């Protein structure tokens, strides 16, 4: 039986379910929990890439960030790894692939190799980020859109590289409003504001969203599968002080049920 234990300031641990034997009712329940808590940790999952991919497909069609490194034999998944690197990877709080018109609703990671120390994944509560904004600023920014652009990837000319999205978005399942943005270098404009005004506002919103009391850090264990809702959280990998190999396989889903 599916059970969940909420965490603070966001997220929940889900037990009593195996990701490779989900019923339609389980998937519906997980969607509801994701809309409410933003991040779900499913521990002790003994799954390979094939079963992990089936788990993702149960939520909807998968999507892939072009320019990432695919998992051998599983082109819908990509590898996130520090193996063989002389310097740690860099990661800032962001939402995945927001530079396309229909970005992924869900992202999931499965732990392939867990380091001896460090390597947590951090998440922010974007419902709380919106709700704790000064009322005057919420009013000033209501109805505005943010221009998101691609960074760090070498894409073909025919691929999407920029898209405009509402800054404040009502989640289609929870009915709550979340602030939708990404790392400042990927957010280049806000409708109705000058370039300098937009840059200042984005920096403020980003700092507000990622303040310490609004962050949950997941410490990985072998067998963990973690899935989150990009419509109400930001995330980053904390690569500071990592000891040992950290390898994750990632998949993303466009949700046909709870579309934007």
Automatic annotation (TrEMBL):
Q: Kindly give the InterPro entries that the UniProt entry links to this protein.
A: AtsK-like, TauD-like_sf, TauD/TfdA-like
Among PANTHER family, the record links this protein to:
ALPHA-KETOGLUTARATE-DEPENDENT SULFONATE DIOXYGENASE (PTHR30468:SF1)
In Swiss-Prot or TrEMBL terms, this protein is called Taurine dioxygenase
Q: Looking at the record's lineage, which domain of life comes first?
A: Bacteria
Keywords, comma-separated and alphabetical: Dioxygenase, Iron, Metal-binding, Oxidoreductase
Pfam families reported for this sequence: TauD
Q: Name one GO biological process term.
A: sulfur compound metabolic process
Domain TauD/TfdA-like, chain residue ranges per copy: 5-251
Cite the GO molecular-function annotations of the record.
metal ion binding; taurine dioxygenase activity
Q: In the UniProt record, does the keyword Nucleus occur?
A: no
């Amino acid at each position: 039986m599916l059970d969940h234990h909420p965490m603070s300031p966001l997220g929940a641990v889900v037990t009593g379910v195996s990701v490779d034997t989900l019923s339609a009712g389980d998937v519906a329940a997980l969607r509801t929990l994701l809309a409410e808590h933003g991040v779900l940790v499913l521990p002790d999952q003994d799954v390979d890439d094939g079963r992990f991919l089936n788990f993702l497909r149960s939520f909807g069609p998968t999507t892939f960030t072009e320019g990432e490194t695919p998992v051998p034999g599983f082109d819908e998944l990509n590898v996130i790894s520090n193996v063989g690197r002389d310097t740690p990877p860099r990661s800032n709080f962001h939402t995945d692939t927001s530079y396309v018109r229909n970005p992924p609703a869900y992202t999931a990671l499965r732990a392939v190799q867990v380091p001896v120390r460090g390597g947590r994944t951090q998440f922010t509560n974007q419902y709380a980020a919106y709700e704790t904004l000064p009322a005057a600023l919420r009013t000033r920014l209501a109805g505005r859109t943010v221009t998101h652009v691609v960074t760090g990837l070498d894409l073909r000319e025919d691929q999407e590289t920029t898209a405009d999205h509402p800054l404040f978005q009502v989640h289609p399942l929870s009915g709550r409003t979340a602030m939708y943005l990404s790392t400042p270098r990927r957010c280049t404009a806000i409708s109705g504001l000058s370039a300098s005004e937009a840059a200042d506002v984005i920096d403020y919103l980003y700092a507000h969203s990622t303040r310490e009391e609004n962050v949950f850090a997941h410490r990985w264990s072998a067998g963990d599968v973690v899935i989150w809702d990009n419509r109400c959280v930001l995330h980053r990998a904390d690569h500071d002080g990592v000891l040992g190999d950290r390898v994750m396989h990632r998949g993303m889903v466009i949700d046909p049920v709870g579309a934007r």
